[in-house]
Amino acid sequence: MKKILYVTDVVKLDLSSLDFACYLCELSHSKLTCIFLENLVREARPAKMLKETAIEGGINVQTENVEELKEQCLADNIQLFKDSCERRGVTGIVHRDRGVPLDDVVIESRYADLLLIDASTSFSAAKEDVPTRFVTDVLADAECPVVILPESFEGLNKIVFTYDGRASSVFAIKQFTYLFPELKEHAVVVITVMEDRDRPSPEERYKLKEWLHDHYSDVDFIIIDGSVKTGLLDSLLLRNRDFIVMGAYGRNAFSTLFTPSHAAPILKLVAQPVFIAHH
Predict the structure, then answer these.
(1) What average pLDDT score do residues 3-12 get?
(2) Please, which domain of life does this record's source organism belong to (predicted)?
């Protein structure tokens, strides 16, 4: 892996998630390209909201003018990004995208190995649940794997693969393994939460186990009976300092998993990094 994208709002740069981004770059010897997004076509957020967001990010805002505020935030955040990368010995590159944020991210992802994004990233004037509509759209449309960034990073314990027997889950497992061969010594847990009629066959589980043992030295399988929506989320909420890997085909799968009724558990879930790939 050579090119990792880090997506952020031009108004706010989160240093905690940037720390994890730098960790991935150090691990994989990759460059980090920071995509500063600006909704130039139609900025829906009022100046007061932008100012509050900037202050949350640690910027001492000096103006009430929207354009001047954005320019100040951009200059300060670019410097923060460069300083953080330099301290970690990571090569940092800056792209300023000033069109439609979703379109910009999708095009950028076409020419990248991995995309990193905070689940709370939003360009809406209204308060949104996590993950936001923008992030859900990015997950569905991105043309490379996506990592939902953790709230904080204190080291990596295990890799957790979610497996339901479908091609999408195996594809995500393989993509993660190919992108992060440096993690081959970490313990792996494969979690399957399925109803009896949909559970992967013993032969399928054996084939996956055989493949995983060619790439990892410590692999454990866990099968949990029950509903996928509740069982999978409940099992993942128990994880700590783990890297969670999931697969999905696109919008239908994401709309099923990320329903409003699951906003609270998902908010807790994204305290851990989540790798998502689909084809």
Answers:
(1) 93
(2) Bacteria
